[in-house]
């Protein structure tokens, strides 16, 4: 089992935030990585709801603010809706996905998670979800 670090970065490589998930399988698809990341960040938000959400995809009915999004009202988010929006955003080049130093171009690509990799997300446009 592998420890994977999920990191948001600017286009210049500056880290904006990160978290790690332990005990992931040694091989997953890029789609599974994206969905795992979104599920975790939504679970963290839903465990301690606030009007501020820091995640890959902007929830609907939210406003962009520095390093995240402001929800108009406290509410639980739907991780599947957020994950679907993230997949759609990837398909239209809304963000770049890097595993280590390698760019991933296909969500169905199988990725070997060796050496406790860093999975970087570089947002190119605002991403809106659920």
Task: Show the helix and strand layout.
Layout: E1 2-9, E2 15-24, E3 27-29, H1 30-47, E4 52-53, E5 62-65, E6 68-71, H2 79-91, E7 95-99, E8 102-104, E9 110-112, E10 118-123
Parallel strand pairs: 1-10
Antiparallel strand pairs: 1-2, 3-9, 4-6, 5-6, 7-8, 7-10
Helix pairs in contact: 1-2
Task: Please describe what this structure looks like.
- The chain has one domain (2-123).
- The protein has helices at residues 30-47, 79-91, and strands spanning 2-9, 15-24, 27-29, 52-53, 62-65, 68-71, 95-99, 102-104, 110-112, 118-123.
- Helix 1 (30-47) packs antiparallel against helix 2.
- With 130 residues, it is an alpha+beta fold.
- Strand 1 and strand 2 (15-24) form a beta hairpin.
